[in-house]
Amino acid sequence: MVRLKKLRMNKKTFIAIVAIVFVAFNLRPAITSVGPLVGIIRDDLGITNSQAGFITTVPLLAFACFSIAAPILAKKWGIEWAIFFGLTTLLIGILLRSFGITSMLFIGTAIVGVGIALCNVLLPGFVKQKFDRLQGVMTSVYTTSMSLFATIASGLSIPLVFNFNLEWNGSLATWSIIAVIGLICWAPLLRGANANRKKERSSQSTKGKLWQSPLAWQVTAFMGLQSMLYYSMVTWLPEIVQANGIPIATAGMLLAYMQLSGLPMTFITPILATRMQNQRVIIVVIALFYFFAMSGLLYIGDSLLAHVFFITLLGGANGASISLSLVLFNLRTTSAGQASQLSGMAQSFGYLLAATGPILLGLIFDFTGSWFIPLVILSLVIILLLIAGLFAGKDAHVFSEQQLSRG
Question: Which segments constitute the Major facilitator superfamily (MFS) profile domain (predicted)?
């Protein structure tokens, strides 16, 4: 009987891990697949660079508007059903924007953002709920899975158009397949949703105090600034390197390489972070990687080898910063409910800040015809990231012992 019980537990754990991984597979492709296609979409639909930048900004605005609602849905339905609803919404959005019509492109992209927002916010809390003692490892697993498919999506977007004659909308529609698989893998977890709902409700009592925590706002600032850097690069890196003299096909592959080069840092950062008393050393390394990468993109000319080197640094900084942001939600809280609350707050306000990045850079480029000023602005963002990170990286919880005891 003991062996059978252990076997059942192992089976449940395996199913949960597979489900987490396949949800993570869906959290970036619907966005990163757009970057290499921005020029094609712009020319086909006759829109401006700033409007093209808005394609990436729309999901970020959806993240900002709906991230705060994710913990409320988890409290009402259970975290498992809320994530399932997020995946379903993502699938609907992918299909709608694949019609190839300008209005449906933006509407579908907004719906995509809503679906991803729900999963983004609730997955850290689910990991804390199911794998509290292994949260560093599991955060590494799902952030690496997320980044891996972000890489695949960036690399396949152009080949799907030119080698398989799918057109840009057909290329974007391809990622609905992963959403369907994600729903199938997540469905077995819905059986245990009701049993966890009471625990989630009991851990929501400190919600009002979260907004009064300076550390919560510092984590939020770090999340938002790193997201601004990431999504700005996902949107405009192909255009930046093309302006440096790199061909369009190679530019798309360099974007995929940026994602790929970040995988080792994505995986190792949460594991290191959970073993450190504070995370400030990691934050300084991230800032240095970003500074060297931005400086390189400004002055390297058309050297492909130099582009590869500096984009490697950029990928490492991106990978480390996003995975650190996600593990901070768990390290700075004491329960799954609190982790979901902090995740919702940080991603709501953080992505509102991040949403300004792609569209602002597009507007400045339209006005100046050069990527020099946009890259300088991103360098200033890195300084702010370092400052916010040094505060967010200190060893503390967003709720004091007194707040927790009163809660």
Answer: 14-397
Dist. CA 85–CA 111, nearest whole Å: 12
Backbone angles phi, psi at 223, to 5 degrees: -60, -45
CA torsion sign, 378 to 347 to 235 to 159? positive
Q: What is the pLDDT, as a whole number, of residue 3?
A: 43
Average confidence (pLDDT) over 304-319: 95
Please name the residues in contact with 394: beta carbons below 8 A apart, sequence gap of 6 or more.
Answer: 215, 278, 280
Sole residue written with tokens 């492709």: 29
Alpha helix ranges (H) inside 78-213: 79-96, 102-130, 135-162, 167-173, 176-186, 193-202, 207-210
> Is 205-406 in the same CATH topology as 1-202?
yes
Domain boundaries, the chain: 1-202, 205-406
How high is the pLDDT of residue 199? 55
Angle at alpha carbon of residue 353, lines to 347 and 355, rounded to 5°: 95
Residue 249 has φ and ψ, to the nearest 5°, of: -65, -40
Q: Which CATH class is domain 205-406?
A: mainly alpha
Rounded distance, CA 83 to CA 405, Å? 30
Cα–Cα distance for residue pair 119/28, rounded to 1 Å: 11
Dump pLDDT digits (tens) for 126-145.
Answer: 998 888 788 889 999 999 99
CATH code linked to domain 1-202: 1.20.1250.20
Distance in Å from the first CA to the final CA of the chain: 40
